[in-house]
Amino acid sequence: MTTHFHKKPNMYVSHVQVKVSNLERSVEFYKKVIGFDVLEQSGNTAVLTFDGATSILSLEQVDNAQGLQGGQTGLYHFAILLPTRKDLGNFIQNIVEANVRIGAGDHHVSEALYLNDPDGNGIEVYTDRPEETWIWENDLVYMTTEQVNIPSVLAEADGGWNGLPQGTVMGHIHLSVSNLAASEKFYTEALGFDVVTRYGNQALFLSTGKYHHHIGMNTWNSANGRPAPENSVGLKSYTLVLDNDAQAEKIKNNLRGIGAVVEEFAGAPKFGGSQAFSTVDPSGIRIVFTFDGE
């Protein structure tokens, strides 16, 4: 179990807000295929849950929605972390029955499945290998992409898939960015993340507390790209959990120091928590900061 990486004092992704073109279709997909329940739904939004209380994902239908285009910044995928390998096996059984196209990758630190929602928004569902098996060298963690041994994962399944299990978290988010150097500077210097892996000059991975990554980013399809229009499907925002007021003030000062947007909130309820402030990264991606987390 690696869930301590998704608790304070680490800064981690707690929630992702995704734009879709047809809310009913997407809700059905996220219930049947991914295993969410609906916590609340009204108008053009649905807040999704796995435990009937907390939300790690919400959907918003945009009118006259435009599809995803190459060359745009935003979501590469969001990644749902399951507690055990058995859970991943049960999930594989469920998506096989649902006849959904998937990809897979063994990253040494984790075993992952990849699929898209009906609008092409990228989803990863994964489980971590024990952290004592991760290989660190000079503060960088070894990650690769090999074939997942699907039969081995399925061998641990017990046929007990009843939706996302207790202990599920939003494991990380992977972003399509326009300029890797600018994004690295922003996330490390302004927000305080550490670089833990690089893939050449096109992708890098960042974390707090020596996780293999809370945030990934690449320029594979988005180098020098621009944000998608407001009425496009894709990422609306994602939420990072702050540890304390001092950290919040430091980040706000850092952001103001580089001329970034800092929008304050007056504790408005949002997804069962309260927002502290938000900003926009160099690729036009909105980040919401909150104190609500474990």
TrEMBL record:
This protein's record includes keyword Oxidoreductase: yes
Limits of the VOC domain: 12-128, 169-292
Transmembrane segments: none
Molecular function terms, GO-annotated: dioxygenase activity; ferrous iron binding; lactoylglutathione lyase activity
Lineage: Bacteria, Bacillati, Bacillota, Bacilli, Bacillales
Name assigned to this protein: Glyoxalase
Organism superkingdom: Bacteria
Signal sequence annotation: none
